[in-house]
Amino acid sequence: MQITFLGTSSGTPTRSRNVSAIAVGLERTREWYLVDCGEGTQHRLLRAPLSLLKLRAVLITHMHGDHCYGLPGMLASAQLSGRAEPLTLIGPRALEPFLQAMMQFAELSLDYELHFIDVADNELVWDALGMRITRCKLSHRVPSYGYRFEETNVERRLLVEKLREEGIPSGPEWNRLQKGERITLEDGRILDGLCYSQPSRKGRVVVVGGDNDQPALLEPLCEDADLLVHESTYTLEIAAKVGPEPQHSTAAQVAEFAERVGLSHLILTHFSPRYLDIPATNPVTGEQKGLSVDDLRAEAKTLYSGNLRMAADLERYNLTRKGELQCESLRSKRDVESKSG
After folding, report:
1. Among 56, 99, 214, 230, which has the minimal tally of Cβ within 10 Å of its Cβ?
2. Which superfamily is assigned to 2-153+204-340 in CATH?
3. Which one is catalytic: 66, 211, 213, 295?
4. pLDDT category, 325, cuts 50, 70, 90?
């Protein structure tokens, strides 16, 4: 399963970070799903191996602008790219009138259909193409949701001993049974492949949370999950100065939750623009001036013993079938040099 970060800043973009957008997909297919679509998401897509023609669903966590302002432009670009297949849009009830108003006043007409799913009315929002997606409600200033992506089309292992005990000779039928198909033998017996095969491993599970000041609300979605992606907008120190009104999580809150439920992997994202990737330093003493993402990392590490990662734009994580988390950058050498400068 692959997770590609297209935007990792909260509220406003920075020189190195766009606002929220995350792509999720299975590595053996080109189909993918987009969680949130902040302004400028389509610019990030130009640097990622993701086609708008293979986008199967867009899931909006909540209707704040840094999570949805990029959606109208991306839908228009999909039209210009030749998209003809329907696209499913999943999110809060306000998503549909928001897009309809934009399309009306901008005179945007799409040649492909948009199918809206209101998350308030559906816990299971998607179950197709080897992916099952469920949601839970979170705590934020507006209705906000988290999504659980669960791999369902797992390779199956044939129960060879059982087949031999029942006198079922090897042949093409074994291959069909391994795929879980139902077959009829020459002697008239009907066999259900699901009774003669079993998943060879656990399906991978990734949970992506929207803006949320109570990480514990994600506990039902995190059962048997391999990875949690969650906002950590502030450190505890800054959160105390800002106050509770923004209703965002701190690095400490998320880390404490991830440790308690036993998550193997945690990726923090949605950082306040005040946290720089490479902060300035005092030229004389070499001391750091201002805040950095490392401050968020350090706070989380004191409470979480698993594999902690801090998301960056155009990083792609691969959650392997063995449950390992690998990371690669989609940035070019020029991008890296610009970021460092």
Report:
1. 214
2. Ribonuclease Z/Hydroxyacylglutathione hydrolase-like (3.60.15.10)
3. 66
4. very high
